[in-house]
Amino acid sequence: MYPTAGGFIRTSSAPIIHPTMAEQHLANVTSALGAIEEYLAPLTKASVDELTKNAAPIEKAKLQVGLAYSVNALLYILLKTQGASSKDLRQTQVKQELDRVKGFVQKIKYSEEMAKGPQVKVDAEAAGRFINHALSSDQVYVKALNERKAEEKTDVEETKTEEKASKASKKTKKAPTTSTSAKPAKKQRKH
């Protein structure tokens, strides 16, 4: 609502708030603005150049982006408190600027990650292939590799013959044995 000579003009479709709730909201806004003023006090006492004189480049970038975000956020809040609609061109430009500043925040985070150095991870399978290929021209290596393959092959063959032998011994144990002392089975009569 804007005051005019003839009364108030309503500029938004926001519901009208009860006076006691309005006082409570106003007190909350006042305390929040006090906190913002306290937070920004060091920046208002000295110039940005003085604050960043001995700072690292990444710290300078953080300060610049933080200031840009703070100014745009405060402008957005000002427009909202004045009842600006979301279709208002100024508010839309403020939102675009806030999004642009958020992009810079992401770039700063990315550059900090890159400053930590690359995360090295060894691909063991690929390293094994490189080593085998490099050593394949070495005759001692080739001979040792062939011997190992031959040993593995004989181990596999021995395992197969042992399995066959154990299966054959199990079959002979399961076969029924005939005893000469056993009495012949009686035939049952059918009635």
Automatic annotation (TrEMBL):
One Gene Ontology CC term in the entry: cytoplasm
Main location as per UniProt: cytoplasm
Compositional bias annotation for Basic and acidic residues: 148-166
GO molecular function: DNA binding; RNA binding
Database matches in Pfam families: Sas10_Utp3
Family from the record: Belongs to the C1D family.
Protein name in the entry: Nuclear nucleic acid-binding protein C1D
Organism annotation: Saprolegnia diclina (strain VS20)
